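Listing S7. Sequence submitted for prediction.
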Amino acid sequence: MAFVSLGFVLLYLAFKDQDLSEVFNQLKSANYFWAIPVFVVSLFSHIIRTIRWQMLMKPLGYRPGIKNSLYALMCGYLVNYAVPRLGEVTRCALLNKTNNVPFKPLFGTVVTERAIDILCLLILIFIVTLMEFSTISGYCYEIIFLPLYSHFLSTLPGITTILILGLLSSIMLFAVFLIFKNRIKTSPVFKRIIQFLQQIWIGIASVAKVEKKWLFITITITIWVTYLLTTYLWFFAFEETKGLTLGAGLFFMVMGSIGKSLPIQGGGMGAYHYLITQAVLLYGVGEVYGNALSIVVHGFQTAFYLVLGGISFFIISLKKQTI
């Protein structure tokens, strides 16, 4: 609930001082031809992501078809728009339905994928920070930290109370575990939890058994290149942003990825719009163009997942389980 509130707060901050009629005019004048190459790149991105997922499944002894894997992946992204992080569970459950791939180790491969993505994002943040340190440090402090700090300062006593209660609860649970550890370790529930975690670990460990590691790395890099292109290509849809460099596209992609990674419904709605709207100011672009750009990029991504995710759900619902 806190993150949902944060999303609406950031959405409000992104548009509160803007002339919405001017934003609407920019949206009307945008060149939507660029939706075609963005769609092609986005589709290619998800296909190679599916191939990378299959490479993680292969060491486990499972090779579901690329179509079913892609359908499950797209359904997962769609579900994430409604309930963040539930999509990872959904795509594993759907592939279990269509191809009888065991859920637990399959979920481990998804955990591995997410860990790799986070590592890649951290590397890109480091690279962008080195490229634009003075500008970005001021941006992060003035545009991100101060507004969030001032908004949530009033809730500090409540946060402190929650942290204290959480610490005390952790201490009590640890004490209970020490006192009853022998009974806990022999209980059926504890054994099931351990077995569940072991099965997930099998999936996580699959990354070490990938046969073509250089291909796996190449695909991972290509995935992030496509993410960059799906942001950069939209620059050409507006007169004011078509002169921005590929480096600016990299910065926008990183900020957008941070916004979308927050567990906020609607693919980071609000967080994405706020970060992109403010990021354009670093490159001398009017804020109204940032508003329009954030709406177009986020809106296209939302439509992409709604349409292809919906189609994928429909196709999977008609399928029978295969081995």
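Caption to Listing S7: primary sequence and predicted structure tokens for the chain studied. Residues 2-318 form one domain. The longest helix spans residues 287-318.
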